[in-house]
Amino acid sequence: MPNDKLVTCVWFDRGQAREAATFYAGLFPDSHVGQALDTATDNPSMPAGEELTVEFTVLGRPFLGLNGGPNFTPNEAVSFMVLTDDQAETDRYWNAIVDNGGAESACGWCKDRWGFSWQITPRALMAAMADPDRAAAKRAMEAMMTMTRIDIATIERARAGA
What we know:
- By secondary structure, this protein is of the alpha/beta class.
- The chain has helices spanning 17-27, 87-99, 123-129, 134-144, 152-160; strands at residues 8-12, 32-38, 51-58, 61-67, 79-84, 103-104, 109-111, 117-122.
- It has two domains: 8-67, Roll (2,3-Dihydroxybiphenyl 1,2-Dioxygenase, domain 1); 79-160, 2,3-Dihydroxybiphenyl 1,2-Dioxygenase, domain 1, CATH 3.10.180.
- 31% of the residues lie in helices and 27% in strands.
- Strands 1-4-3-2 form a four-stranded mixed beta sheet. Strands 5-8-7-6 form a four-stranded mixed beta sheet.
- A hairpin with a 4-residue loop joins strand 6 and strand 7 (109-111).
- Helix 4 runs antiparallel to helix 5.
- The N and C termini lie far apart (48 Å).
- GO terms for molecular function: methyltransferase activity.
- Residues 5-121 form the PhnB-like domain.
């Protein structure tokens, strides 16, 4: 992480950053948990020696998990969008997030057990919504609006007008 110019800092409740980083690193390729930093002195949020930050990467992108406490909670204003290549990859990520304490939402969105929103988005959905045939794109969008997890075959049928 020291060579990265932009690092996303993700605020967790106390003691959750390493657990989340380990979960993400185990789920996504090109991901790992890096160095941790402990607090050097007692402070109002935590005692000296407690883990303050954890460096990690997800899909090659750098993050810093901050064990900041309960002061802030995640919301849908910021989400992590993962583009998938097929239904199996879509299902694998979706199931891992939802089945491990997460929750389904609408239109390919879900939340992990720490409250962070993820968009598990097939590239086929993006292609359908960008179709130059705007009627086909509209049908694909309307189909997506009825879904929680995205079903590529249903999107493609809607796009084709079937």
